[in-house]
Design brief:
- The protein has 14 helices and eight strands.
- The strands form two sheets. It has a six-stranded parallel β-sheet, covered by helices on one side. Strands 1-2 form a two-stranded antiparallel ribbon.
């Protein structure tokens, strides 16, 4: 990451369900949601076998906590009344949690909007929180606190307490995986999360269709909202300045920045600049940003300017490795480029050839961490093993 020479290419593939898929205990994604100890055992077993140079653990979510909250932004394996297969991850819905005419409300008080509008709409079980309203005009005795003690709000508190117990059980198992990795000498690949501010709008507030309409109809409001969301994220990352951690890295999955989804000018001003604001703020705190490109990025490479030198990992799913090497040489560490389809559907020989193809371009002694193009959900074991062995020998 510091762009200094290394004896070999580090191996740090981003893992989805693969530790579960290859486990000996039959774990699947339903266990991530409802049987975290079994999922954690599978993850620890996987890292015992393969010992990569960095680990991505398991992103655990409590199915029971989501049931209590009546979470509606996605469906998940084991959810009552749904039919999501046990072996797949949660399945996201496209829901508009904010209407186009609510931008001024979001910009005026983003925390209030999340509390009073976004939470009740996305977690109907906690709708009572939307009744909280604080007015400093009334501050005699406990009058300021009255809405905090309203019956629907108290009901939401009770549900939150139940959810906290379920989430604590999940967090304990996740921490057990993290502790095992550190015992193995495997640091985390990242230990913080962020979004490009436009993705936060598109994923979580307006939906993809609504966000694209806004790019045409109200671009100034979108740009202003991106700036507010960038500031909100930066404020939330201040703990990095003070907390002792084995690494300090934030993962940004770039969901909607790929080729063709917006014009170059829109990418520059509305997508990249607010993201770059986050990345530079993290760099000032000594935090590495992992900018995880999803989809095709060939036309975006020359627009990804201004990165702090030696403070980022730029991951690509589909892009020309040679062009990326030229664009980011001496600026950013690269990762990715190896297609995942062959791990599950292709031959061992094809996996080896694809791995060598990328290494031949990028493995020159510095500035490349081996990763596949996308998180690995499924793979034939012999194909995954062949890929790892090829990197350690060829790289």
């Amino acid at each position: 990451m510091a762009l200094k020479p290394t004896p070999r290419v580090p191996v740090a593939p981003l893992l989805g369900n693969l530790p579960l898929h290859l486990s000996s205990n039959g774990a699947n994604f339903r266990d991530v949601m409802y049987n975290p100890a079994k999922a954690a055992d599978a993850a620890i077993e996987f890292y015992t076998w393969f010992r990569p140079d960095a680990g991505s653990g398991l992103m655990m979510h409590s199915g029971l906590a989501n049931e209590i909250a009546e979470t509606n932004m996605y469906d998940w394996p084991g959810q009552p009344g749904k039919n999501v297969p046990d072996y797949t991850t949660y399945q996201c819905h496209e829901i508009e949690y904010m209407s186009a005419d609510e931008y001024p409300e979001l910009l005026g008080d983003i925390t209030g909007f999340i509390l009073k509008k976004m939470i009740p709409r996305s977690f109907p079980g906690l709708a009572g929180l939307g009744q909280i309203a604080l007015n400093p005009s009334f501050h005699l005795g406990t009058t300021l606190l009255q809405t905090l003690m309203a019956p629907p709000v108290l009901e939401a508190y009770d549900k939150l307490a139940q959810m906290a117990a379920h989430e604590a059980a999940m967090n304990a198992e996740s921490a057990r995986v993290d502790a095992a990795l550190l015992e193995f000498g495997i640091p985390p690949l990242f230990n913080g999360m962020g979004l490009a501010p436009f993705d936060a709008i598109s994923d979580n507030l307006r939906g993809t269709t609504g966000a694209w309409e806004d790019l045409l109809d109200r671009p100034d409001l979108v740009a202003a909202a991106c700036d507010v969301i960038a500031d909100l994220q930066i404020a939330g990352w201040q703990y990095f300045r003070y907390v002792d951690m084995p690494v300090k890295r934030v993962f940004f999955p770039l969901h909607k920045g790929m080729d063709g989804l917006m014009s170059p000018a829109q990418f520059d001003s509305i997508y990249w600049q607010p993201l770059l604001k986050c990345v530079n703020a993290l760099a000032d705190m000594g935090v590495i940003s992992m900018i995880y490109g999803e989809g095709y990025y060939n036309t975006r490479i020359d627009h990804m300017e201004g990165l702090p030198v030696g403070q980022t990992i730029v991951h690509m799913e589909y892009a020309d490795p040679a062009a990326c090497k030229k664009a980011f040489d001496g600026i950013a560490c690269l990762s990715g480029f190896v297609p995942i389809v062959n791990l599950h559907m292709g031959s061992k020989e094809k996996v080896i050839d694809e791995t060598k193809r990328v290494l031949d371009v990028l493995a020159d002694g510095s500035g490349y961490i081996f990763d596949t193009g996308a998180g690995i959900e499924f793979a034939q074991r012999e194909n995954f093993e062949a890929m790892i062995e090829t990197v350690r020998e060829w790289g």
